[in-house]
Amino acid sequence: MRLRGRSRLPAPIRRTVRFEEVSVPKVKANNITINYEQQGSGDPLILIPFLTADHACYAFQVAEYSRHFTCISLDLRGTGESDKPEGAYSTELLADDVAAFMRSVGISQAHVSGLSLGAVIGMWMAAKYPDMVRSVSAHSAWPKTDAFVKTAIECFQIVAKALESVPEMVIRALFPWCLTPDLYAAKPDHIQTLADFVRSRPAQSLASFMQQSNAVLAHDMERQLGRITAPTQITFGQRDLLTSTRFADRLKNGIRNSELVIFEGCAHAALYEKVEEFNSRTLEFLQKH
């Protein structure tokens, strides 16, 4: 047992996030090695990262969630310290990885939570492996990639190639889609802290980013929504353009045991924009189930 990644986090995050002893093993699952971090005690809660991110992306949430749950944050294939095999990725394959991971570490059922890419992976898990999923927290999710999402993701790919850096693409191109202009104006230090945080983490390679973002481009689980039976919390930022509330009715109507939460004044990443409100609303749902 040792503290994982504490020295790599920017000082403002270290001051905000409560650290305890954290388990940091790796396991074989679905023919790859998966790196993960475990913290807290209680029922298991699997936290699935979003596009480009490693397991540390939920630092602001784990600080609160771990008071109530055993939080298990993992590196998806192609990110962090997990394996980065060649070949095509899909959101369904990434869900298969997480299900295999749970089997490897002996977790028969867990709450599953994720933002954006992490959210659709969690939805795929609930559809394919219903007995393994106690609840789904799907933040900024979408059922099928449409022309608008496709255009944005292709733009991110172009910028990443031009900059030859996935972290710099995240800060210069992805951040403005995830955070509101008001947040940039009101809290420039917070934006800088998030940028420092991105730069402090293991950088995703350009090749792995292309594999992962191509999975986003090909994402389509519209016909699978009816297979999701676990209680599901669907959340959106009211000012999100990328995965906007245009998807809300399709998800809410498609997933029968679901509730919808809209975070006012937020874009794609309410978990960083309104940390306390996000944690409170999402934790309330988790504790009900």
Question: Would you write up a description of this structure?
Answer:
43% of the residues lie in helices and 17% in strands. It is α/β, with parallel strands linked by helices. The protein has one domain: 3-Layer(aba) Sandwich (Rossmann fold). It has an 8-stranded mixed sheet with strand order 1-2-4-3-5-6-7-8, with helices on both faces. Strand 5 (110-115), helix 4 (117-128) and strand 6 (133-139) form a beta-alpha-beta unit. The radius of gyration is 17 Å and the shape is globular. It starts with 10 loop residues before the first helix and ends with a helix.
Structural class by SSE content: alpha/beta
* CATH-assigned homologous superfamily: Alpha/Beta hydrolase fold, catalytic domain
Q: Can you identify the CATH class?
A: Alpha Beta
Mean pLDDT: 93
By CATH, the architecture is named 3-Layer(aba) Sandwich
CATH fold category name: Rossmann fold
Order of strands side by side in the largest beta sheet? Answer: 1-2-4-3-5-6-7-8
Number of domains: 1
Query: So how many helices?
Result: 12
- Helix amount, in percent? 40-55%
Q: Alpha-carbon distance between the termini?
A: 30 Å
**How large is the share of residues in beta strands?**
15-25%
H and E order: HEEEHEHEHEHHHHHEHEHH
Brief synopsis:
The chain has 289 residues and is an alpha/beta fold.
